[in-house]
Amino acid sequence: MIIVAIIIVAFPFFLNFLVLLNIGCPVAGNPATWIAFWPSYLSAIASFGMIALTSMALFYNNKTLANNKEQLNEMKRQWDEEHSPNVSVSFSQLGNVAYLRLINTSHVEIKNLKISGDFYNGEEKNDFFNMKLLEQFNIDIEPHGIRNIVLHNNIVPLTDNFYFILQLYYNGMQKEIKVYCNDLYLVGDVIVWRQLIDSIRKIK
Question: Which residue, among 149, 123, 146, 154, has the nearest Cα to 136 in the 3D structure?
């Protein structure tokens, strides 16, 4: 841009030098004509400068708008992610009692959660747990709340060959999740024994 500006400014002086130079060739117009050329030339330069500045301003404004749009989209994505219902499931064990722990990891309430699925040993389905029991539950979970579903009250430790493939239905969504039994969740919070006993009695 600096080089272009130098050329634009220097061109009239160079042209004037050629006009005054006695090179034996006829020159169009007279000195008064060339003096009148300067206002037109300077006006053209000023117009070009305004157009260039306007174009640069539009370019940077469009770039700023594009950046702002990306930031807004990212903020919207984060907001949607934080306010979308989400449930995580882990296999837990307390003594000989095995259960699925459901954790609402979102800021919204989970409504009418239903679960179905199968239990596997390797690639083969296994009937160690009565998975039909899961379909009897219809669960609400408050934001960041926890629910425990008792599966068995006299269980032995399971190896990493055992896992669940579960289908979760909640808030108009469907989610498939794989839960490994060796990835055992160690209970860190207090479980109300009355609720646990009531859950076992319901299964019986």
Answer: 149
Q: Label the pairing between strands 87-94 and 97-104.
A: antiparallel
Q: What pLDDT score was predicted for residue 141?
A: 93
Q: What pLDDT, on the 0 to 100 scale, is given for residue 189?
A: 40
Alpha carbons 56 and 96: distance in angstroms, whole number: 72
Nearest to 111, CA basis, from 141, 87, 81, 137: 141
Q: Where are the alpha helices (DSSP H) in the chain?
A: 2-20, 31-83, 193-203
Give me the residues paired with residue 141 across strands: 110
pLDDT reported for residue 20? 66
Main-chain phi, psi angles of 123, to 5 degrees: -95, -5
In contact, 133 and 151? CB cutoff 8 Å: yes
Tell me the one-letter amino acid at 61. N
Average pLDDT along the chain: 79
Alpha carbon distance 22, 175 (integer Å) = 89
Alpha carbon distance 63, 61 (integer Å): 5
Residues 87 and 175: beta-carbon distance below 8 Å: yes
Encode pLDDT of 105-156 as tens digits.
Answer: 888 899 999 999 999 988 899 988 888 888 888 999 999 899 998 888 877 7
**Residue 132 tokens, joined:** 């039909």
Q: For the ranges 51-65, 116-130, 173-187, which has the lowest average pLDDT?
A: 173-187
- Sign, Cα dihedral of 192, 198, 199, 204: positive
